[in-house]
Specification:
Length: 283
Protein backbone atom coordinates (compact mmCIF):
# COMPACT_ATOMS: atom_id res chain seq x y z
CA UNK A 1 0.00 0.00 0.00
CA UNK A 2 1.55 3.35 -1.03
CA UNK A 3 1.11 5.82 1.77
CA UNK A 4 1.68 9.55 1.54
CA UNK A 5 2.51 11.53 4.70
CA UNK A 6 2.14 15.32 4.41
CA UNK A 7 2.92 17.48 7.47
CA UNK A 8 0.12 19.89 8.39
CA UNK A 9 2.36 22.30 10.33
CA UNK A 10 6.00 22.35 11.46
CA UNK A 11 5.01 21.65 15.08
CA UNK A 12 2.28 19.02 14.93
CA UNK A 13 0.07 16.99 12.60
CA UNK A 14 0.28 15.16 9.29
CA UNK A 15 -2.27 14.04 6.75
CA UNK A 16 -2.10 10.40 5.68
CA UNK A 17 -3.29 9.57 2.18
CA UNK A 18 -3.61 6.23 0.44
CA UNK A 19 -5.28 4.31 3.29
CA UNK A 20 -8.82 2.92 3.30
CA UNK A 21 -9.57 2.05 6.92
CA UNK A 22 -12.60 -0.03 5.95
CA UNK A 23 -10.14 -2.57 4.50
CA UNK A 24 -7.30 -4.48 6.08
CA UNK A 25 -4.23 -2.30 6.64
CA UNK A 26 -1.20 -4.51 5.94
CA UNK A 27 1.77 -4.66 8.31
CA UNK A 28 3.99 -2.46 6.15
CA UNK A 29 1.33 0.27 5.92
CA UNK A 30 0.64 -0.05 9.63
CA UNK A 31 4.34 0.43 10.43
CA UNK A 32 4.42 3.60 8.30
CA UNK A 33 1.33 4.95 10.07
CA UNK A 34 2.79 4.14 13.48
CA UNK A 35 6.03 5.91 12.56
CA UNK A 36 4.12 8.98 11.32
CA UNK A 37 2.09 9.04 14.55
CA UNK A 38 5.30 9.22 16.58
CA UNK A 39 6.85 11.80 14.26
CA UNK A 40 3.86 14.15 14.02
CA UNK A 41 1.67 13.51 17.09
CA UNK A 42 -1.62 13.94 15.18
CA UNK A 43 -2.68 12.06 12.04
CA UNK A 44 -5.55 12.98 9.76
CA UNK A 45 -7.25 10.44 7.46
CA UNK A 46 -9.88 12.07 5.21
CA UNK A 47 -12.81 10.45 3.44
CA UNK A 48 -13.19 7.34 5.59
CA UNK A 49 -16.38 5.27 5.84
CA UNK A 50 -15.99 2.84 8.74
CA UNK A 51 -18.23 0.80 11.00
CA UNK A 52 -17.81 0.76 14.80
CA UNK A 53 -16.15 -2.67 14.45
CA UNK A 54 -13.62 -1.38 11.90
CA UNK A 55 -12.87 1.65 14.05
CA UNK A 56 -12.26 -0.52 17.13
CA UNK A 57 -10.18 -3.04 15.16
CA UNK A 58 -7.85 -0.40 13.67
CA UNK A 59 -7.50 1.45 16.96
CA UNK A 60 -6.83 -1.80 18.82
CA UNK A 61 -3.70 -2.42 16.76
CA UNK A 62 -2.05 0.48 18.60
CA UNK A 63 -2.83 -0.69 22.13
CA UNK A 64 -5.41 -1.64 24.71
CA UNK A 65 -8.71 0.26 24.82
CA UNK A 66 -9.74 2.29 27.82
CA UNK A 67 -13.47 2.32 28.67
CA UNK A 68 -14.55 5.88 29.52
CA UNK A 69 -15.87 6.51 33.02
CA UNK A 70 -18.99 8.36 31.76
CA UNK A 71 -20.60 5.08 30.79
CA UNK A 72 -23.96 6.59 29.79
CA UNK A 73 -22.21 8.12 26.74
CA UNK A 74 -20.72 4.89 25.35
CA UNK A 75 -22.10 3.40 22.13
CA UNK A 76 -24.48 0.63 23.21
CA UNK A 77 -22.88 -2.74 22.44
CA UNK A 78 -19.47 -1.12 21.84
CA UNK A 79 -18.15 0.28 25.13
CA UNK A 80 -14.79 1.04 23.48
CA UNK A 81 -16.54 3.92 21.66
CA UNK A 82 -17.34 7.17 23.46
CA UNK A 83 -19.90 9.37 21.71
CA UNK A 84 -19.22 13.08 21.29
CA UNK A 85 -22.61 14.11 20.07
CA UNK A 86 -25.42 16.67 20.01
CA UNK A 87 -27.98 13.94 19.27
CA UNK A 88 -30.68 12.88 21.74
CA UNK A 89 -32.40 9.53 22.30
CA UNK A 90 -36.19 8.99 22.16
CA UNK A 91 -36.46 10.22 25.77
CA UNK A 92 -34.75 13.47 24.82
CA UNK A 93 -31.55 12.58 26.71
CA UNK A 94 -28.11 13.32 25.28
CA UNK A 95 -26.51 10.16 23.81
CA UNK A 96 -22.99 11.62 23.97
CA UNK A 97 -20.95 14.37 25.55
CA UNK A 98 -22.13 17.45 23.68
CA UNK A 99 -19.61 19.99 24.97
CA UNK A 100 -16.56 17.70 25.13
CA UNK A 101 -13.12 19.23 25.36
CA UNK A 102 -13.77 22.98 25.16
CA UNK A 103 -10.52 23.62 27.06
CA UNK A 104 -6.93 22.67 26.25
CA UNK A 105 -6.22 19.19 27.60
CA UNK A 106 -4.77 15.76 27.07
CA UNK A 107 -7.38 12.98 27.30
CA UNK A 108 -7.46 11.06 30.57
CA UNK A 109 -4.44 12.93 31.96
CA UNK A 110 -6.19 12.50 35.33
CA UNK A 111 -5.53 8.73 35.33
CA UNK A 112 -2.50 7.31 37.04
CA UNK A 113 -1.67 5.95 33.60
CA UNK A 114 -2.95 8.67 31.22
CA UNK A 115 -4.06 7.80 27.71
CA UNK A 116 -1.58 7.01 24.95
CA UNK A 117 -3.85 8.14 22.14
CA UNK A 118 -7.39 8.92 21.01
CA UNK A 119 -8.96 8.14 17.64
CA UNK A 120 -11.92 10.35 16.75
CA UNK A 121 -14.13 9.68 13.74
CA UNK A 122 -16.60 12.29 12.47
CA UNK A 123 -19.95 11.19 11.07
CA UNK A 124 -21.84 14.50 11.16
CA UNK A 125 -20.29 17.93 11.62
CA UNK A 126 -21.69 21.47 11.54
CA UNK A 127 -20.95 23.52 8.41
CA UNK A 128 -19.10 26.10 10.51
CA UNK A 129 -17.15 26.15 13.80
CA UNK A 130 -16.84 23.01 15.94
CA UNK A 131 -13.12 22.87 14.98
CA UNK A 132 -10.55 20.99 17.05
CA UNK A 133 -7.14 22.58 17.63
CA UNK A 134 -4.04 20.55 18.47
CA UNK A 135 -0.88 21.84 20.15
CA UNK A 136 2.48 20.09 19.79
CA UNK A 137 3.87 19.89 23.31
CA UNK A 138 7.36 18.79 22.24
CA UNK A 139 7.66 21.90 20.06
CA UNK A 140 6.32 24.00 22.94
CA UNK A 141 8.92 22.52 25.30
CA UNK A 142 11.69 23.19 22.76
CA UNK A 143 10.48 26.80 22.63
CA UNK A 144 10.92 27.37 26.37
CA UNK A 145 13.91 29.36 27.63
CA UNK A 146 16.47 27.12 29.38
CA UNK A 147 15.80 28.54 32.86
CA UNK A 148 12.08 27.87 32.44
CA UNK A 149 12.76 24.27 31.35
CA UNK A 150 14.79 23.78 34.54
CA UNK A 151 12.07 25.35 36.72
CA UNK A 152 9.27 23.27 35.18
CA UNK A 153 11.38 20.14 35.39
CA UNK A 154 11.10 20.25 39.18
CA UNK A 155 7.31 20.70 39.30
CA UNK A 156 4.41 18.30 39.50
CA UNK A 157 0.73 18.97 38.93
CA UNK A 158 -2.44 17.35 40.20
CA UNK A 159 -4.87 16.20 37.46
CA UNK A 160 -8.50 15.59 38.39
CA UNK A 161 -11.44 14.63 36.15
CA UNK A 162 -14.17 15.81 38.53
CA UNK A 163 -12.56 19.24 38.89
CA UNK A 164 -12.91 19.85 35.15
CA UNK A 165 -16.28 18.11 34.74
CA UNK A 166 -17.88 20.39 37.31
CA UNK A 167 -16.31 23.52 35.82
CA UNK A 168 -17.66 22.68 32.35
CA UNK A 169 -21.07 21.71 33.74
CA UNK A 170 -21.35 25.14 35.37
CA UNK A 171 -20.12 26.93 32.24
CA UNK A 172 -22.23 25.30 29.50
CA UNK A 173 -25.16 23.82 31.46
CA UNK A 174 -25.10 20.64 29.34
CA UNK A 175 -23.60 18.03 31.68
CA UNK A 176 -25.25 15.68 34.17
CA UNK A 177 -23.75 15.46 37.65
CA UNK A 178 -21.18 12.68 38.12
CA UNK A 179 -22.43 9.74 40.17
CA UNK A 180 -20.61 8.73 43.36
CA UNK A 181 -19.29 5.64 41.53
CA UNK A 182 -17.88 7.84 38.75
CA UNK A 183 -16.27 10.15 41.31
CA UNK A 184 -14.79 7.15 43.13
CA UNK A 185 -13.35 5.83 39.85
CA UNK A 186 -11.47 9.06 39.10
CA UNK A 187 -9.35 10.11 42.08
CA UNK A 188 -6.73 12.81 41.37
CA UNK A 189 -3.29 11.81 40.04
CA UNK A 190 -0.01 13.66 40.30
CA UNK A 191 2.28 13.87 37.23
CA UNK A 192 5.51 15.67 36.36
CA UNK A 193 4.93 18.85 34.33
CA UNK A 194 7.78 17.91 32.03
CA UNK A 195 7.63 14.32 30.84
CA UNK A 196 9.67 12.24 28.45
CA UNK A 197 7.82 10.59 25.59
CA UNK A 198 8.32 6.85 26.17
CA UNK A 199 8.77 6.02 22.47
CA UNK A 200 10.55 9.06 20.99
CA UNK A 201 12.42 10.10 24.17
CA UNK A 202 11.56 13.73 23.42
CA UNK A 203 10.80 16.00 26.37
CA UNK A 204 7.48 17.80 26.48
CA UNK A 205 5.15 19.91 28.60
CA UNK A 206 2.41 17.82 30.23
CA UNK A 207 -0.29 19.95 31.85
CA UNK A 208 -3.64 21.24 30.55
CA UNK A 209 -7.23 21.53 31.60
CA UNK A 210 -7.51 18.58 33.98
CA UNK A 211 -4.82 20.17 36.19
CA UNK A 212 -6.46 21.21 39.40
CA UNK A 213 -3.27 22.49 41.00
CA UNK A 214 0.50 22.52 41.20
CA UNK A 215 2.22 20.80 44.12
CA UNK A 216 3.71 23.40 46.46
CA UNK A 217 1.49 26.27 45.26
CA UNK A 218 -1.79 27.46 46.71
CA UNK A 219 -4.93 27.03 44.60
CA UNK A 220 -4.95 30.48 43.00
CA UNK A 221 -1.24 30.50 42.30
CA UNK A 222 -1.45 27.00 40.78
CA UNK A 223 -4.38 27.89 38.52
CA UNK A 224 -2.62 31.03 37.29
CA UNK A 225 0.56 29.03 36.65
CA UNK A 226 -1.29 26.40 34.57
CA UNK A 227 -3.16 29.10 32.68
CA UNK A 228 0.04 30.91 31.77
CA UNK A 229 1.79 27.69 30.73
CA UNK A 230 -1.21 26.69 28.59
CA UNK A 231 -1.18 30.12 26.91
CA UNK A 232 2.52 29.68 26.12
CA UNK A 233 2.08 26.10 24.82
CA UNK A 234 -0.83 26.94 22.54
CA UNK A 235 0.63 29.89 20.65
CA UNK A 236 -0.21 29.70 16.92
CA UNK A 237 3.31 28.49 16.01
CA UNK A 238 2.69 25.25 17.97
CA UNK A 239 -0.91 24.67 16.80
CA UNK A 240 -2.81 22.94 14.00
CA UNK A 241 -6.49 23.87 13.71
CA UNK A 242 -8.56 21.04 12.27
CA UNK A 243 -11.71 21.92 10.34
CA UNK A 244 -13.79 18.78 10.35
CA UNK A 245 -15.48 17.14 7.38
CA UNK A 246 -17.72 14.11 7.71
CA UNK A 247 -15.56 11.03 7.13
CA UNK A 248 -12.47 12.46 8.86
CA UNK A 249 -10.65 10.26 11.32
CA UNK A 250 -8.05 11.97 13.51
CA UNK A 251 -5.69 9.93 15.66
CA UNK A 252 -3.64 11.89 18.17
CA UNK A 253 -0.97 11.06 20.70
CA UNK A 254 -2.18 12.27 24.11
CA UNK A 255 1.35 12.03 25.46
CA UNK A 256 2.65 14.86 23.28
CA UNK A 257 -0.37 16.77 21.94
CA UNK A 258 -3.05 18.76 23.72
CA UNK A 259 -6.34 19.58 22.03
CA UNK A 260 -9.20 22.04 22.29
CA UNK A 261 -12.71 21.77 20.80
CA UNK A 262 -14.46 24.97 19.79
CA UNK A 263 -18.19 25.39 20.28
CA UNK A 264 -20.73 25.67 17.48
CA UNK A 265 -24.30 26.76 16.84
CA UNK A 266 -26.55 24.25 18.65
CA UNK A 267 -29.00 24.33 15.73
CA UNK A 268 -26.53 22.05 13.89
CA UNK A 269 -25.97 18.31 14.44
CA UNK A 270 -22.52 17.08 15.42
CA UNK A 271 -21.86 13.37 15.89
CA UNK A 272 -18.47 11.72 16.39
CA UNK A 273 -17.20 8.60 18.09
CA UNK A 274 -13.89 8.04 19.82
CA UNK A 275 -11.72 5.22 21.01
CA UNK A 276 -9.17 5.91 23.73
CA UNK A 277 -6.01 3.87 24.26
CA UNK A 278 -4.28 3.10 27.53
CA UNK A 279 -0.89 4.66 28.12
CA UNK A 280 2.02 4.66 30.53
CA UNK A 281 2.74 6.33 33.85
CA UNK A 282 4.51 9.62 32.95
CA UNK A 283 8.15 10.11 33.90
FE1 LIG B 1 -10.43 15.41 24.58
Amino acid sequence: MAIKVTPLTDAVGAEIEGVDLSRHVDDDAFAQIHRAHLDHGVLLFRGQDITPEQHIAFSGRFGEHEIHVMSQFLLPGHPELLLISSLKNEKGEAIGIEDAGRYWHSDLSYNERPSMGSMLYAMEVPPERGDTSFAGMCAAYDGLPENRKAELGKLRATHHFGYRWNKEAAKWGLRPAMTQAQLDQTPPSVHPMIRTHPETNRKLIFAGGFCSGVIGMDEKEGEAFIEELTAFSTQPEFVYVHKWRAGDLVFWDNRCAMHLASDYDPKYRRHLRRTTLKGEKPY
